Amino acid sequence: MTDSRHALIIANDRYDEQGLKKLRAPAQDAASLAEVLHDPQIGDFEVEVVRNEPAHVMRRRIQRFFNDRRRNDTLVLHFSCHGLKSESGELYFAASDTDPVLLDATAVPAQFVRGCMSRTRAGSSVLFLDCCYGGAFSKGSSSVRSSGDVNVLESFNAEKPPGGRGWAVITASNSMEYAFEGPDLAENSAPRPSLFTHAVVQGLETGEADLDLDGEVSLDDLYDYVFERVREQNPNQTPSKTVEMQGDLHLAHSKCRRTKIIPIDLPPSVKSAISSRNAFARLGAVAELRSRLRNESLPIAEGARQALEEVARNDIRQIADEACSALREVRLQPSPARLDFGLLPRGSPPQRKSVTLAGPPLARCCVAQSTHGWLRVEESAEGLDVTVDPSTEGHLSGDIVLKGVTAEAVIRVEAVVAREREETPPKGGDRETPSLRPPPRKSHLSPALATAALAAAVTSVITLIMAAVRAEEAVENRRAEGPGGVLETHVEAVGMLSPLTTCLITAATALVLGAFARHYLRARGNSYTAQATGTINFLTSTTKVLAIPALILAALIGIAYLVAKGQW
Questions:
Q1: Number of C-alpha atoms within 13 angstroms, CB side, residue 198?
Q2: Cβ neighbours, 10 Å, residue 156
């Protein structure tokens, strides 16, 4: 979504007026709506939230929201608060300081909101009303009964947006569930106020509102979804809608998007060959289907694919194997299957890499979705363009999920974003401009320590083996010499102490070097790529596996020698 998209969510759940506190709080659902609208993979809106503000602040924020917009802007204004009727039937949105007997001075008139929507230059404006008297908004200054059902959209439908611009109003109800009587608010068949907003959030967040599975949640999709969900849970509440807009307005991306291709039926001759009793005729049909599978026309290829799946399930093994071989040609084949962006300075421009999709057109037909907000993917002529936004420091790891016609594939994406550092200001007082530095280039210390540690560990194992062999030789020589021999003499003769001492020293050194390597890795983790980090961890782990047993066995041999030489 490349157009500018803005949302303003007004949520009031605390009121100075005691009579307004009888209704339930909408704040939690409003916060959820802000999150789902802001999600770059769903709504991709710039979201502002106004919560529990007085009337003059609400009016200022609403007018500023609609001012200074461009023709390609899409605006969404959401009210989650009390709606109050004046004696003449006009609708007001309650602020934190609203006094029911002073609505003009302490509340936001619906007429004011309509005026802001009429004057904005934005191409599309959508208003969601989740409040008691939401349905009365479209009546404007018309007379409305104090309670009961009314046709609230008639007068609004008569007003056309100026200059070819479009707008839409979706309300939580088309009836007056509450009536205002004197200084207090009286209930009349009250629904749960957050039911409407909760349905909006659920439909966008799960993608269930994408009723036609085209990958986009349109305004009509969302309204139909919300209408059904609200009516299921409360038959007394009927959401309503009025639209003055040309074409579809896509409010969000859908996480439920699937590749949907309507197949073209096979020619009668191919159908006849598939159902023939002659195995050679069916083999010929599979060859024809394989050819159609590679067709540039996706409907033709999809028709062939479905027929091949039927053959693979039901025909004899030889023919089924040929069908399966043909179907393998349309599997998703992303290359590469893993992207490592390496080291990126935080705050630098987004980095881009390309992924190619191999195979015939049907194999390249897929929907790509990322699992994280810092990771974006767009279709290109060759396949996909994957972009990483290096605005978040640390080790970034995410996936691009490709959903093809029959299967899915995953592209792993990793990057390490460097920290942002500031120059120390000179003592003269003029502070230098902060500069972004990549981590020090001297990032070989931890790998060097890990390599040296492993080398020392291997040496300790080798010298341990030498010491053990020589110890055995010394013992055999002492046993052969008889009662008059001395073990220490034979140990010195075979030279056992030299490799034993070397083993003890190198094993201890290996463990110390490994510990330092792990320390520097933790302290300077952003200096190393994910691959380097994995290699260092492997080297230090192998070092421990080798050095610890070598150190223990060498110590046991040394202790045994010290005990035995005094007695033997």
A1: 10
A2: 18
Tokens of 390: 């290096």
Calpha distance 13→21 (Å, rounded) = 8
Most distant pair of Cα atoms in the chain: their distance: 125
For the whole model, what pTM was predicted? 0.49
* Angstrom distance (rounded) from CA 368 to CA 523: 36
CB 116 within 8 A of CB 122: no
Q: How far apart are CA 514 and CA 506, in angstroms?
A: 12
Angstrom distance (rounded) from CA 545 to CA 448: 19
Residue 243's nearest CA partner among 269, 267, 222 is 222
Distance CA 410, CA 483 (A): 74
C-alpha triplet 131, 135, 140: angle, nearest 5° = 110
- Provide the CA 17 distance to its chain's centre, in angstroms: 42
From the CA atom positions of the chain, what is the Rg in Å? 37
| Mean per-residue pLDDT, 184-189 | 43
User: What tokens does 462 get?
Assistant: 């080798």
CA separation for the pair 463, 475 (Å, rounded): 18
Dist. CA 317–CA 306, nearest whole Å? 18
Cβ distance 261 to 269 under 8 Å? Answer: no
Assign 181 a pLDDT band (cuts: 50, 70, 90): very low
